[in-house]
């Protein structure tokens, strides 16, 4: 099993989705973790659209890298620009990869309705699912 960390700014949305999909779709080959360079709490819309996709992330929690167990990560995947820029140092032969996804809360900020807001979350969720489904091969392995 390979250990993978999905890193985002606040560990509230994109990295949580990636962790959930990795556990559901690639749990046979990956042990998934997520964290943030800050801690923003779980995004309720992210939890809702993941449930629509059949993946329950309601038991996951927003956390900092420093709160993770002492794990030797094989892969660290940054999902947003600020996490990529602020990515902490990881010792050992870790492979760092940046795969940027748009920020659903920012996209939904000007939404005229809840349904319109959720449509942004669904689009990013589906893009993350497609990426995760190809792991770890699409990381150059």
Beta-strand level of the residues, as a percent range?
15-25%
Mean pLDDT: 91
3D shape: globular
Report the strand count: 4
- By CATH, the architecture is named 3-Layer(aba) Sandwich
Number of domains: 1
Could you tell me the radius of gyration in angstroms? 14 Å
Separate helix tally: 5
Task: Characterize the biggest β-sheet.
Answer: 4 strands, parallel
Distance between the termini: 14 Å
Q: What's the name of the CATH homologous superfamily?
A: Response regulator
Classify the secondary structure makeup into a structural class.
alpha/beta
InterPro entries: Ptyr_pPase, Ptyr_pPase_sf
Domain Phosphotyrosine protein phosphatase I: 2-138
Pfam families: LMWPc
Keywords: Arsenical resistance
Could you explain the architecture of this structure?
Keywords: Arsenical resistance. The two termini are 14 Å apart. The chain has one domain: Rossmann fold (3-Layer(aba) Sandwich), CATH 3.40.50. The protein is of the alpha/beta class and 141 residues long. Helix 1 (14-26) packs across helix 5 (114-133). Helix content is 37%, strand content 16%. The chain is built from five helices and four strands.
């Amino acid at each position: 099993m390979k250990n993978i960390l999905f890193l985002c700014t606040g560990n509230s949305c994109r990295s949580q989705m990636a962790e959930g999909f990795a556990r559901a779709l690639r749990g046979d080959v990956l042990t998934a973790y997520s964290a943030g360079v800050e801690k923003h709490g779980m995004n309720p819309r992210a939890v809702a659209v993941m449930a629509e996709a059949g993946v329950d992330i309601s038991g996951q929690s927003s956390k900092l890298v420093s709160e993770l167990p002492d794990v030797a990560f094989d892969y660290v995947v940054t999902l947003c620009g600020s996490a990529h820029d602020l990515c902490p140092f990881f010792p050992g032969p870790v492979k760092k990869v940046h795969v940027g996804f748009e920020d659903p809360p920012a996209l939904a900020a000007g939404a005229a309705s809840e349904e319109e807001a959720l449509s942004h979350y669904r689009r990013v969720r589906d893009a993350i699912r497609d990426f995760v489904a190809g792991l770890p091969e699409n990381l150059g392995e």
